[in-house]
Amino acid sequence: MKIHPPSGLTSLDVVFTNWLMMYLSDDEVQMLAKRVLSWLKVGGYFFVRESCFHPSGNMPRNSGNPTFYRDPSKYCELFQVITNENGPLFEGGHEFELQFATSVKTYIKRKKNPNQICWLYRKVSRNAPPLQRTQTLQEFLDGDQYTRRGILKYENIYGYNFISVGGPKKAQELLANLQLKADEYVLDVGAGVGGSAFLMAKEYGVHVLAMDLSSNMVTIGMQRRVKESADSDTSSGRILLDRIAFEISDINKRDYQSEAFDCIHSRETVLHLKDKANLLAKFYRWLKPGGRLLMTDYCRGEKAEDSHSREYRKYTQTRGYYPATVTEYEKLLRQAGFTQVTAVDRTADFAAILQEELTSLQRSERSFINEFSQYEFDQAIQGWRSKQRFAAEGDMVWGYFLARKE
Predict the structure, then answer these.
(1) How far is residue 234's CA from residue 331's CA, in Å, rounded to a whole number?
(2) Which residues have CB under 8 Å from 329's CB, separation 6+?
């Protein structure tokens, strides 16, 4: 790759690329990205736009086409490991921090093409030396809890398109409480592969921004949006393309315009964040007057933190969870400015759902093992039984929250 800017160039504010990475090998993409990191000043931005998944349009392609139509998650993976090791080891160097990745709206509107994806990265100082660098939440989600295979296993239990308690049945029940109206704008935080977003767009006619930090989740969601649009009639297919936007981003760092949304919906997501007060304050600011917030989350029981079982504490630490109690959530919601706050312990409902899911999993043992493995089946059974035990012993609580901005 012969890209050599003037020597000593380290002060650019923005580097913009368009339809470039798709003509480069993985090694060349990383080589270019590392050079861009060295050219940018700290706080500078790197904008990338590429065609993903497959060729656009219906023009025949010759066999010598050199293009790599990668999944969006692949670009996230390639950029995650780019660091600049200039300077003494203890200084830590710099790296890219993802701001967001999403489909280009104009291509959806004009060409019905959701596969033009753009990324915005920011150059940041790394807080630790390379050998001491800890795994980011996105790296943990994509590389451990929500690998593509892991997502498909969860779907096998929760239901197609769902990675949340109770699957589509519980999602429909909860969404009814939001009192959604046609053409409202909804932010779906921790949207996963898009199950609730699809329901909201198809059944209520709302516009949904479905965001998640897991690039694997969002990549699958983008693919499902295209598939469901193709499988639907012309009208409902257009609804999915026009009304659902997927975005890879970190809700802890993301910001949106004030009063941008009529509703915010979030399922089993906020427990990943330490600073819940700051996030709920942002939710309040992003909602329009009269806006509604609906959340469910894995909470901890109303007892002293050090009285929780050792197994439960290990479970939360391993997964990077920071669970709050239902009472703590209610207090934080009111402090953020929300009124008409409903904060309910729904653990009895949760326990019934867990048993239904466990029974269904046991009945499908043969097909699950055929698709995955005996080991993964045993791990799933163990995981569900652990949650049953945590709930029975008062360690884990399933919280339901509904609040309004006056």
Answers:
(1) 46
(2) 276, 295, 297, 299, 343, 399, 401
| SS3 state of residue 31 | helix
State the angle between helix axes of 276-286 and 326-336 in degrees (0 to 180), rounded to the nearest 10: 50
What's the CA gap between 157 and 237, in Å, rounded?
27
- Give residue-wise pLDDT tens across range 346-386: 999 999 999 999 999 999 999 999 999 999 999 999 999 99
| 131, 132, 138, 144 alpha-carbon torsion, rounded to 10° | 80
190: alpha, beta or left, given left = phi > 0 and alpha = psi -120 to 50? left
End-to-end C-alpha distance for the chain, whole angstroms = 56
Q: Which of 353, 300, 360, 355 is nearest to 327 (CA)?
A: 300
Please tell me the distance from the alpha carbon of residue 293 to that of residue 287, in angstroms, as a whole number.
Answer: 8
The predicted model scores a pTM of 0.91
Instruction: Indicate the SS3 state at residue 74.
Output: helix
Q: For residue range 300-319, what is the model confidence (pLDDT) as tens digits?
A: 999 888 899 999 999 999 99
Structural Rg of the chain based on CA atoms = 22
Cβ-based neighbours of 382, under 8 Å, separated by 6 or more: none
3-state secondary structure 183-219: CCEEEEECCCCCHHHHHHHHHHCCEEEEEECCHHHHH
Contact 81, 36 (CB under 8 A): no
Pairing mode, if any, of strands 94-103 and 116-125?
A: antiparallel
**Crossing angle, helix 234-243 and helix 215-231, to 10 degrees?**
160
Share of residues in the chain with pLDDT > 70 (%): 88
Are the CB atoms for 106 and 256 separated by under 8 Å? no
